[in-house]
Specification:
The protein is mainly α. The chain is built from six helices and no strands. It is extended and about 100 Å long.
Length: about 150
């Protein structure tokens, strides 16, 4: 049994070394695998000269000093906490408001009477013959003024 364990660890080390060697080779050979690495630059292109200049002088590598400062108007952790708590409270209120048994059909006569009183205040009525004739005359006048669009050619 101990011999099997030694063989397993030796084979595992060998596989680990082979994997490391393959990944190192892949990292070294990545330039050859990159598509378009040796592509010619079209001199007629509007960006051709800028591309050639960037390839000739790529510039310095970025550093951590190049990371911009944080904006001054960022929310604090406490403000985030309050915003999340407020949103969760709103969600809980909405869930409770839409839960089953949050409304009933009790006292429907009083509800209907209240609506009838509100409708009576704004004087809603069926149109009279005079109002219908006035609307029809207005529509006729608009139709007479209207010109149809030209026929397609």
């Amino acid at each position: 049994m101990e011999g099997d364990t030694r063989i397993f660890w030796r084979a595992g080390r060998l596989a680990l070394l082979a994997g490391a060697a393959l990944s190192l080779c892949a990292c070294v050979a990545i330039d050859e695998l990159e598509p378009g690495a040796g592509a010619a630059i079209d001199p007629a292109s509007s960006a051709g000269s800028a591309v050639a200049a960037a390839i000739a002088d790529p510039g310095p590598w970025p550093t951590f000093a190049g990371i911009p400062e944080l904006p001054a108007d960022l929310r604090t952790a406490e403000a985030w906490r309050e915003a999340v708590a407020e949103q969760e409270a709103d969600g809980l209120f909405t869930a409770r408001s839409a839960a089953p048994d949050t409304w009933s059909l009790n006292d429907t006569d009083a509800f209907a009477a209240g609506l009838r009183a509100r409708v009576a205040e704004i004087d809603v009525h069926a149109p009279t013959d005079a109002e219908m004739a006035e609307s029809e005359a207005f529509a006729r006048a608009l139709r007479a003024r209207a010109t149809p669009p030209p026929l397609p050619r």
